[in-house]
């Protein structure tokens, strides 16, 4: 019998009229937590919703079946796109399992923890930030305070479950929502054990994900990731990264690794050291990574390809110098074009993210971006457009929230926010009646789910969308082939060679 059920609800799922596509990636975050719990002598019942087979994943019966027979502590990880579905599913779960302590984690709730706990009394706590140490303290504290068979709602325990000593959580103390002190970051990432890969069947995942760093120091105002780490990066040593790659290769035989960290190219020197370590080993693998325009020079690119890198992805975001300056990107369009031009001559695959829909982006600005995308595509770069998603932790959202009216337009969601409930058809999104209540829930809470909303649909979003369709960056028939290889949106690395 396990001590805790840890469920991963992070998922990329896109439905079309005639099919459903899922790209299944190794859930690194939850597996890191699972390993920390195991090292503290707790047994983990690990479940990954990505691998759950059901005709319709997004029904109360489906999630109920997935979470049946849980342990007395349930930890759930989700991202922003599935946050509404997750909290509603947990409401149903609470009705069926009143004795289970429910904690929510992952990046989905970041920045709106208090609002969620006030809105969702069936959730007992939410983790904030780095979780390896927090999860162990939380489980230990709950285990000590929980009386077997007693409903776990804090208001009914008469103060016997005191979570005030657990750093890095927001929790409900009777009728109060309490934010505990922030958890200190782990600076030496080499001390963190490798994820609990043994809890999953690695052969079922599209690619083997690895991270070589945590955090990013850059100030891009639209970014939802850097604020989670306080814009302070820490990196793993090349030896530690290589050891994990060797371990995974021995376990799976997979020779393709996907580096998921945004700050992989933190400096030419660090990348060079890792590449030299890979070359000096007997490990002959292929890998993909994210880069940054102003940190990847030609010697760095050449070193990466010699070590097996087959694809690099850049966040270009805009072809307008004014827009790049407004979002604090840190380079100009000409520099981006030059680096992309160098990269296509070195790497087998080069991808470029472009973001559109900024409310301050004029059509002249957008046309400059469109020309940049066309020029990059002509060079052989794969273009990955994405509609702006105003997640609550972003600097841009905080700048605009008080002065801008958010509009809910469910016919067109940002790529990051597609949930799998929608049906992509004829260039728009359709919502079936059985899932309508989820979108009603979203539209009623723009302060909690702002990533689903737009600014000025008629004058800002739709004219740009039509131009992107006209030039083939979105298909007329079905938005994008979200998981295909011809036209893609932003997201995790493709697993294709």
Structure description:
This protein has 14 helices and 21 strands. The chain is α/β, with parallel strands linked by helices. The strands form 5 sheets. A 7-stranded mixed beta sheet has the order 4-1-5-6-7-8-9, sandwiched between helices. Strands 10-13-14-15-16-17 form a 6-stranded parallel beta sheet. The protein has a 4-stranded mixed beta sheet with strand order 3-2-19-20, with no helix packed on it. A hairpin with a 2-residue loop joins β19 (423-425) and β20 (428-430). α1 (28-39) crosses α5 (132-145). The chain starts with a strand and ends in a 27-residue tail after the last helix. Mean pLDDT is 90; it is low at 148-155 and 478-497.
Largest sheet: 7 strands, mixed
Tally of helical runs? 14
Binned, the helix content reads 25-40%
Overall tally of structural domains: 2
Q: Which keywords apply here?
A:
single chain; 497 residues; alpha/beta; Rossmann fold; pyruvate-formate lyase- activating enzyme; 2 domains; 7-stranded mixed β-sheet; 6-stranded parallel β-sheet; 21 strands; globular; disordered C terminus
Quick structural summary:
With 497 residues, the chain is α/β, with parallel strands linked by helices. Helix content is 31%, strand content 18%.
Helix/strand layout:
Blueprint lengths: L3 E5 L3 E5 L3 E4 L4 H12 L4 E5 L11 H7 L6 E5 L5 H14 L4 E5 L7 H7 L5 E3 L4 H14 L23 E5 L2 E4 L28 E3 L2 E2 L19 E2 L2 H15 L3 E4 L8 H13 L5 E6 L6 H9 L2 E9 L3 H6 L6 H12 L4 E8 L6 H17 L2 E6 L7 H6 L6 E2 L14 E3 L2 E3 L5 H8 L9 E2 L2 H14 L27
Parallel strand pairs: 1-4, 1-5, 2-19, 5-6, 6-7, 10-13, 13-14, 14-15, 15-16, 16-17
Antiparallel strand pairs: 2-3, 7-8, 8-9, 11-12, 18-21, 19-20
Helix pairs in contact: 1-5, 6-7, 7-8, 10-11
